[in-house]
């Protein structure tokens, strides 16, 4: 994921024209509080019915959204976004680092996995940009194809890359919030894909 700002821009520029990258998208509509609360509940129910094995991943993501948007547990919301996240990252890093011995990590298979990740991000970026180009054509030039590259699950890094590339082509371009849509969809899609793998492979 740290390599996303290096992997994505060349692919994005190769698959789009300057005119497409310059496209300024319309302001997003205002989303009501009710919609923000209903969305995580509906997603959890729908994914739970389709793929019960993905509930731990999708459910926690949606619970975080619900805690933030409901507005009645402000202290829990702030803790989850700041202190709790920092504590979990520290402990996760320590436990992974403590258990990753050199004999296990420094092997050719590790390089294969890294290369596989690079290829996956490259294919994901190219597929997203090509779908963005299709949306550009179908919308009559209203959708900037660069937001398609944010469909990978690197949040919010991929959305920032879309924003940076859009502003390089046109300084009046503000694609960040538009790109966050496919970015979050990529996270949900990854969690569902993980649920499929768990259910198939056990």
Kindly state the mean pLDDT as a whole number?
A: 90
Strand content: under 5%
Distance between the termini: 26 Å
Q: What count of structural domains? A: 1
Catalogue the unreliable spans.
none
**Structural shape:** globular
Total number of helical segments? 10
Please describe the biggest sheet, giving its number of strands, its sense, and whether it closes into a barrel.
Answer: none
Structural class call reads mainly alpha
Radius of gyration: 19 Å
* H-E order: HHHHHHHHHH
Tell me the number of strands. 0
Helical percentage? over 70%
What does this structure look like?
The chain is an all-alpha fold and 202 residues long. The protein has one domain. The protein is 74% helix and 0% strand. It is built from ten helices and no strands. 24% of the residues are buried. The model has no long low-confidence stretch (mean pLDDT 90).
Features:
10 helices, mainly alpha, 202 residues, 74% helix
Secondary structure elements and pairings:
Layout: H1 4-15, H2 18-21, H3 33-50, H4 55-70, H5 74-81, H6 83-99, H7 102-105, H8 108-138, H9 157-169, H10 176-201
Quick synopsis:
It contains ten helices and no strands.
């Amino acid at each position: 994921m740290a390599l996303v700002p290096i992997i994505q821009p060349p692919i994005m520029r190769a698959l789009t024209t300057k005119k497409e990258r310059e496209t300024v998208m319309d302001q997003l509509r205002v989303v009501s509080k009710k919609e923000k609360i209903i969305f995580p509940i509906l997603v959890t129910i729908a994914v739970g019915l389709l793929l019960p094995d993905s509930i731990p991943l999708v459910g926690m993501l949606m619970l975080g959204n619900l805690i933030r948007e409901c507005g009645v547990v402000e202290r829990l919301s702030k803790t989850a976004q700041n202190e709790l996240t920092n504590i979990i990252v520290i402990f996760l890093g320590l436990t992974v680092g403590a258990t990753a011995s050199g004999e296990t990590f420094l092997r050719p298979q590790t390089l294969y996995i890294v290369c596989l990740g690079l290829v996956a991000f490259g294919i994901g970026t190219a597929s997203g940009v090509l779908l963005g180009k299709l949306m550009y054509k179908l919308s009559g030039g209203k959708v900037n194809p660069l937001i398609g590259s944010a469909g990978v699950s690197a949040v919010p890094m991929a959305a920032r890359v879309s924003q940076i590339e859009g502003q390089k082509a046109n300084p009046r371009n503000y694609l960040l919030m538009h790109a966050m849509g496919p970015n979050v969809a990529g996270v949900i899609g990854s969690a569902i894909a993980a649920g499929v793998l768990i259910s198939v492979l056990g």
